[in-house]
Amino acid sequence: MTERLVVIGGDAAxxxxxxxxxxxxxPQDLRIVAFEKGAHASYSACGIPYLVGGEVPDAETLVARRxxxxxxxxxxxxxxxxxxxxxxxxxxxxxxxxxxxxRDYREPFDQLVIATGGLPNRPDLPGAQAEGVYGVQTLDDxxxxxxxxxxxxxxxxVVVGGGYIGLEMAEALVRRGLEVSLIDAGExxxxxxxxxxxxxxxxxxxxxxxxxxxxxxxxxFSEAAxxxxxxxTAGHDVRADLVVLGLGSRPNTALAAAAGVPVGxxxxxxxxxxxxxxxxxxxxxxxxxxxxxxxxxxxxAIALGTHANKQGRVAGINxxxxxxxxxxxxxxxxxxxxxYEVARTGLTTAEAAQAGFETVEEIVKSTTRAGYYxxxxxxxxxxxxxRRTGRLLGAQIVGQEGAAKRxxxxxxxxxxxxxVQDMTGLDLAYAPPFxxxxxxxxxxxxxxxxxxxxxxGHD
Length: 459
What we know:
By secondary structure, this protein is α/β, with parallel strands linked by helices. The chain contains twelve helices and 25 strands. It folds into three domains: 3-46 and 56-119 and 250-319, 3-Layer(bba) Sandwich (FAD/NAD(P)-binding domain), CATH 3.50.50.60; 122-247, FAD/NAD(P)-binding domain (3-Layer(bba) Sandwich); 333-458, FAD/NAD(P)-binding domain, CATH 3.50.50.60. 27% of the residues lie in helices and 27% in strands. The strands form seven sheets. It has a five-stranded parallel β-sheet.
C-alpha cells in the first residue's frame, strides 16, 4: 500500500523535507502532498529586503523551484493558495481551505511534517491594523509592500524595530528614495549584539540619513480614513505614509498546539534530534520548532533559513528511511546595513551571564586587508570567552566590505568548544588583498587569551 506524506508549509523546511523523502522513496511507495497558503513556495525569504530595495528585479527571482518542477520532476503534489486549518490526529487527516475557489476538503496522512514557519510580531496598539502597516515575513508580504511603493508613491516611512529585518528594510526604503525613521524600544539597534557593537550600527544608519529614535517604544499609530499617517512614541510624533514592522517573529504553532502536538517553553514545537515530535508519525522543522543552543545548553527558537533547510533535510532523510540528526545551533547570523556588514555567533555578554558563565571580552579594531593595500576597510571584532577556561562563547563583527564572513571561523571555533588560546595558532590564509598578516580574528583571540592568562594568574 502507498504511504501518504502531508507537508504543511511550502518554503525552506517543508520543501526540503518533501524533496529528501522523495529522493529516498519511489512515488509508488510514498505519495507526497504539500500545502502552502501563499502564492509562492520554495523561495528565499532572506531576499525580500533586496526585492523591496530594487537590487533583486522581481519576486520570481527569489523562487528556487516552481510548483511544476516539484510536480513533474519530483512527483510532489504542491498546492498553492491552500491553507491547512486543522490537524486531526485521531482521524490522521488535515482540513484544507483552497482560497482560489473557497473549497474545503480533508487530506489523509500516514506521516505529517509541520513546517508552518513563523508569524511576524504585530503590536496590539492603536492603529496597528490600519492600511499601510506591513509585516514582512513571506514573499507575498514583500510583494504587497512593493506594490504599495510603486503605486502609492509614499514619501516617508517608519520602520519599527531594529533587528535584522528592520535594519535591512530601512536601507531598502532609503534606496527607494523615502524619508525613513527607525524606532526601537532598545537603547541600541541589533539586540543580538552587545551594546558597544550595536552603537556602531546606529551610527551607520544615521550616516545613511535615517532618523534613529532609540529607547522609545511605539505607543500607537495615527490614521486618517483607515490609512496610517504616522507613529508616535512618548517623545515624538513621526509622519509616515507607510509603516514596516521589524519586530521579529514567533513560532507559528497554533495548528500544532490545537491538535495536541507539544510545544516547548519558547513556544516552538518540541522535537528530538531527528525532528520527530512526541506524536507518532508527526515531524516538525523550521521556524516553528524549538531547538537546542549548544553553548547555553538551553532551548531556543531562532528563525533562520539555514536552520530551516537543515532541519527539513533531516526530517526528510528520516521519513525516507535513512538516519540523520540535527545537533543544535550556535546562533550564527550575518546582515548588511549600508556599507556595514554585521555578524554574530554564540552568546552575547548578557546571554553568557544568564547561562552562568563568567566572561572576558575583547574588542579589536583592525582592517579587512593589509593597511597599504587599496580598498582596505575598518573592521571591529569582539570575542567573548569563559574567564576560567578560555573557551570561546561568542563573537561579533561589525565592519565594511570583507568583514562579515570572518564570523564563520569564529562559529566553527564556538561549535567545537575551542579556547581562545587554541585559536591563536589557527592557520588562516593570508594575502594582502584579503587580510592583514595578523587576521582580525587571530588578534582578537590573542588579546582575549592574554587576558584569560593574566586573570588565571590572580586566582
